[in-house]
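thought: fold this chain, then report.
action: predict
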Amino acid sequence: VNRSPGSSEAKVGSCAMVLPVFRMMEDFKSLSEAADGLRATMHCGEAAGKESTMCTESTAVWDPLFWFDYAYLDRIFFGWQKHHQMLSDIDTKNCYGCEMHMTHYHVPLADWFGKHSEDKDCDGILVPKSDPQACITYLHATTE
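observation:
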C-alpha cells in the first residue's frame, strides 16, 4: 500500500473546511461534480498517489481506506440534504440524473435519495422513498 499522509502533496481539505463548502452546493449536480473530484483526489490524486492500491479498480475495495472514503462521501451527501431541508430552499430528494436506474438493482436512483423523516425516532432520511425500510442518520459522539 502506497500512502504518505505526511507528504506536502496530501492536500485534501479537513472536514472543517470541506463540509461547509459542500453543504452550500446549489443542486445535486454541483454536489456530485465536487464530490467526484474529492473522491478522485482521495483515491488516485494528491492524497493517495497514482501507485496507490486505491487507484486500481481491481484492488481498491480491498484497501480498508476505500470504505472510509465512501462513508465520508455519504456523510457529505447527508449533510447537504439536511442543510437544504432546514433552509427549505431546494428539493434534495430529486436530482439531475435521478431518472437513471441503479446498475445492479434496476430501481430508480431517486428512490434511494429517500424522504425526510417526520418521526422523532429517526432524525434523518428514510430509504427507499417508495417503501421505507431504514433510517439513515449520523449520531454525534457524546461524553457522559
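thought: worth noting. Confidence is low (pLDDT under 50) at residues 1-5.
final: C-alpha cells above.
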